[in-house]
Amino acid sequence: MTLKSQSQATLFIFALFVITFVLTDVSAAQGGRKPLLGGWTPIQNVSSPEVQEVARFAVSEHNKEANTNLKLQKVVSGETQVVSGTNYKLVIAAADGGGGAGNYEAVVWVKPWENYKNLTSFKKL
After folding, report:
1. Which residues form the Cystatin domain (predicted)?
2. Are 99 and 80 in contact (CB under 8 A)?
3. Is CB count within 10 Å lower at the N or C end of the chain?
4. CB 110 within 8 A of CB 88
């Protein structure tokens, strides 16, 4: 085997290793075991105190901004996204004072080290 063919073989084996590593990493991320950077990851426990606090904040801020009187009933589902902090995308069941209920999607940006929360969107589904 010549030096050139040895170099090509080494390069080929290295490329296979890199491709295998990348595909394993992506496959794990899509299976929920390892999130993709910047991607949304389902929240496993929407009843956690942290998620409930974010939902209460979202409804309270929406009520202030829209001059409404929604009451949080429950968090139906949610996802998080790692950014400079964490984005929470929650589906919230809420009712207004007149008995009308519905689901809403709220996105809240949280930076706990700065004690910062910001409602970035809130819409009826």
Report:
1. 35-125
2. no
3. N
4. yes
Contacts of 30 (CB under 8 A, 6+ apart): 36
pLDDT digits (tens, 9 = 90+) for 13-60: 554 444 444 444 444 444 555 556 679 999 999 999 999 999 999 999
User: Does domain 41-124 match CATH 3.30.1330.60?
Assistant: no
Question: Both tokens of residue 3?
Answer: 């030096």
Under 8 Å between Cβ of 46 and 75: yes
Handedness of CA 13, 15, 18, 24 (dihedral sign): negative
Say if pTM beats, i.e. exceeds, 0.85. no
Beta carbons within 8 Å of 26's beta carbon, 6+ residues apart: 36
Tokens of residue 88, six digits: 């929470």
Q: Which residues contact 108 (CB under 8 A, 6 or more apart)?
A: 54, 57, 58, 87, 88, 90, 117, 118, 119, 120
